Amino acid sequence: MIRELTCVECPMGCKITVKTVDGVNEFSGYSCPRGKMYAENEIVDPKRVVTSTVKLSDGRVLPVKTDRPVSKKDMFSVMEEINSITATAPVKTGDVIKENVFGANIISARTVK
Ligand code: SF4
Fold it and tell me: What is the pTM of this model?
């Protein structure tokens, strides 16, 4: 099996090819160790930063995101957690809204007075 990936670790966007033969992955096309690590993670356990909004107690909404990428397999559960949150203003950008949701903190992406 052959997979083509675009490394997103820097603006160069190297095209990385992952060839899997008998369960062994061979990587080519990366220009630095970060690119190989990115490709390995994409194959084994792809992760993404989750962005969404939570309710504020006064009826407004607050943009939030995870403070680190979470496994794609956990994203639905993370969204359920986010949807259950009601935060209270004032909130500053970067404030932790909820700790340790599948290994990440949910943080505010905006200052709301
Ligand atoms: S492989 Fe290295 S140089 Fe290429 S996009 Fe990824 S981080 Fe950038």
Answer: 0.79
Distance 64 CA to ligand 1 centre (A): 28
By residue range, what is the domain housing residue 19?
A: 2-44
Over the stretch 18-45, which tens digit does the pLDDT of each residue have? 999 998 999 999 999 999 999 999 999 9
Shared domain for 55 and 96, answered yes or no, is yes
Co-location of 56 and 32 in the same domain = no
Distance 72 CA to ligand 1 centre (A): 22
Residue 113 forms part of a structural domain: no
Phi, psi of 94 (to 5 degrees): 95, -10
Site to probe by mutation for ligand 1, drawn from 4, 8, 10 as the one with most ligand atoms within 8 Å of Cβ, is 10
